[in-house]
Amino acid sequence: MVETIRNIGWSLVFSVVGAVIGMILVLVSSLIIPWLLDRLTPNIDELKEIVRGNQAVAEYFGRLVSAAIVGVSIVVAAAVLGGILAALH
Fold first, then answer.
1. CA-based nearest residue to 80, from 13, 27, 3, 32
2. Quick check: helix, strand or coil at residue 21?
3. What is the pLDDT of residues 61-75, one digit of tens each?
4. Most distant CA atoms of the chain, gap in Å
5. What does DSSP assign to residue 89?
6. Nearest residue to 26 (alpha-carbon basis) of 89, 64, 74
7. Residue 1 contacts by C-beta under 8 Å, 6 or more apart in sequence?
8. Confidence bin at 2 (pLDDT 50/70/90)
9. pLDDT, tens digit (0-9, with 9 covering 90-100), for 4-53
10. Which residues contact 45 (CB under 8 A, 6 or more apart)?
11. Whole-angstrom distance, CA of residue 4 vs CA of residue 31
């Protein structure tokens, strides 16, 4: 019984640590990905085009950035789940 409670405690610790690291990674990626996309397309200033009202650039930029952030979130969620499962076994 004591080992089960200890395993549950460790899974909570792994969940909290994983969630904090995951939030940091998602926030950092939401800062780096737009910068990286801007560097990959040197002939297009996305922010200037969005301010000018260019809908195509806005949708392109938004979809790429959001897809990358969702991808990072999925990887972080898998890591947190892996930590929980490792603590419970």
1. 13
2. helix
3. 889 888 988 988 888
4. 64
5. -
6. 74
7. none
8. confident
9. 888 888 878 877 888 888 889 888 988 898 888 888 888 888 888 889 99
10. 38
11. 40
- Which tokens go with 4? 């089960």
Q: Which amino acid is at 9?
A: G
**Structure-derived torsion over alpha carbons of residues 55, 59, 62, 67, reported in degrees to the nearest 10:** 180
CA distance 60 to 41: 12
What SS3 class is residue 44?
coil
Alpha helices in the chain (DSSP H): 2-40, 46-52, 55-88
